[in-house]
Specification:
Length: 299
């Protein structure tokens, strides 16, 4: 288990991380979310020991993170750090050896990963000759070659097409099944929503929302009602508790403050014509994120 306890980081006088605490259990996928400059990379660097916290404590299974545990950690950095003049094979051997692995073991695992990511043909090609997406796959392989117990992924999906996003997600879920702790950052809420259970949202280094994704959604009282049919939009807009009424190409989306207003909307919809849909849904993580980040900027 990874434990971050009341961690603060100043760069000179600039406060980058502000009394941050969270835990990532074994077999858990944890999302560290925030806009640019929120403090995600700084937090990751402190976790892997590249930066010293100004105050607070970070432990992995109860022990401080130092050289004795780095073999158990895999890290995908945001600024992609491949040695582009090396071949894929040379690069992965380099990282594997750094993690204390034997060459034979590295090559076996490498072949499996190359096959899985459909890039076996690039094994002896120089990294600079690969496309960006394929370079990212190599970067991912270098982070996981040692089967890490703690996998840290800084923006793992940036620049990937949807097929590759899916491929990375499947690989990450497998590490979860094996009991690894996974912590990743992203600005893309739709990625987070798909597979992360717990999260923290950072604004200017401070946690503004944290916990289990399902519970966060439950506690955030707003709901969205999706309607298809001919209804009196004006009447719905003027109801108490209605935050907004948006019309998309297919449907009407009515945002309400809480579920106590569903019935009032329903009463108007019933009077409408050709109604084929009336569905009450939880807000998306993106909506929650935007409202939390917005509130903090204003407040
Ligand atoms: P992004 O999504 O853009 O990568 P981030 O959430 O990873 O952002 P950090 O890179 O951790 O954010 O930066 C947090 C804050 O600390 C920012 O205000 C940034 O300008 C500042 N900062 C980061 N690194 C340094 C540094 N080496 N020296 C001084 N300030 C820094």
């Amino acid at each position: 288990m990874l434990k971050v306890e009341d961690v603060t980081k100043y760069y000179d006088k600039h406060l980058a991380v502000d009394h941050l605490s969270f835990e990532v259990q074994d077999g858990e996928i944890f999302g560290l979310l925030g806009v640019n400059g929120a403090g995600k990379t700084t937090t990751f660097r402190m976790i892997i020991g590249l930066l010293e916290p100004t105050s607070g404590k970070i432990t992995l299974n109860g022990k401080p993170i130092d050289y004795s545990v780095t073999d158990e950690i895999g890290f995908l950095t945001e600024e992609r750090s491949l040695l582009t003049k090396l071949t894929v094979k040379e690069q992965i051997i380099y990282y594997g050896v750094l993690k204390g692995m034997k060459e034979e073991e590295i090559l076996k695992s490498l072949d499996e990963w190359l096959e899985r990511f459909h890039i076996t043909e690039y094994k002896d090609r120089k990294i600079k000759e690969l496309s960006k997406g394929n370079q990212q796959k190599v970067q991912f392989i270098s982070a996981v070659i040692n089967n890490p117990k703690l996998l840290i992924l800084d923006e793992p999906f940036s620049g990937l097409d949807p097929i590759n996003v899916e491929m990375f997600m499947d690989a990450i879920k497998e590490f979860k099944k094996r009991g690894s702790s996974i912590i990743f950052s992203s600005h893309r809420m739709e990625h987070v929503e798909l597979f992360c259970e717990k999260l923290v949202i950072l604004v200017k280094g401070k946690s503004v929302l944290s916990g289990n994704l399902k519970e966060i959604k439950k506690e955030y009282r707003r709901k969205n009602i999706h309607i298809i049919g001919n209804v009196d939009k004006e009447a719905i807009s003027s109801l108490k508790g209605v935050v907004s009424v948006e019309e998309t190409a297919e449907e009407l989306i009515v945002k309400i403050e809480s579920d106590e207003y569903i019935d009032d909307v329903f009463k108007i919809v019933k009077k409408g014509k050709d109604i084929t849909k009336f569905a009450v849904e939880d807000p998306t993580l993106n909506e929650i994120f935007l409202s939390k980040v917005g509130e903090s900027y204003e407040g």
